[in-house]
Amino acid sequence: MVGDWLQLDFTKTNGTHVTVSGHQHHGGTTIATLTQSLVNSVNANPVLQSADGVLASDFGDATYCGIIAAQLTLYARSPGWPASQIQVVFTASTNLLVLPAGTNRLQDNLTDLRPRNSSLRQLRGGLTHGEPRARHDSHPRRVPCLDRRRL
Question: Would 78 disulfide with which of 13, 34, 83, 149, CB 3.0-4.6 Å?
Fold first, then answer.
């Protein structure tokens, strides 16, 4: 509907408040177009492009059980727990439902919060006279599941 809107209110870890939105200015705009507009607004905002900012990605749209829906994922631009403490509130015009409701932090994906290159540093540091040492990785990572029958 003309006049529909989506809005994200961010509170960065330094206390800076940033609001971005997507608006439907003319008829014929779908929820997918409105959500893509919000993704573009997040990624184009200069305050959110810094290391303590946010990236919007993984846009998708579909129909679930007859309900037209769209989704996006927000990522802290820096890894680690402190960066994941950015707060975000997702709101919309009254005829649209947004989830999750309330104030949320970007801390749901634990693998994104762990250091990514600690094992690489340990492996590089473990080479002595061309012989690799055993590597200890205190940050477990998800690995692909292999079907041993195919090996």
Answer: 83
What mean pLDDT is predicted for residues 2-19?
93
Span 45-64, pLDDT tens digits:
999 999 999 999 888 888 77
Please give the DSSP secondary-structure letter assigned to residue 140: -
Q: Residues 11-56: pLDDT tens digits?
A: 999 999 999 998 877 777 788 888 999 999 999 999 999 999 999 9
Closest CA to 56 of 82, 36, 32, 80: 36
Residue 148 in any domain: the answer is: no
If one counts every other C-beta atom within 10 angstroms of the C-beta of residue 24, the result is 20
Asked if residue 149 belongs to a domain, the reply is no
Q: What pTM, to 2 d.p., does this model score?
A: 0.71
C-alpha distance across the termini of the chain, in Å: 55
Side chain identity at residue 42, one-letter code: V
Total number of domains constituting the chain: 2
Q: How many CB atoms lie within 10 A of CB 87?
A: 14
Distance CA 40, CA 44 (A): 6
CA distances, 57 to each of 27, 54, 69 (Å): 26, 10, 16
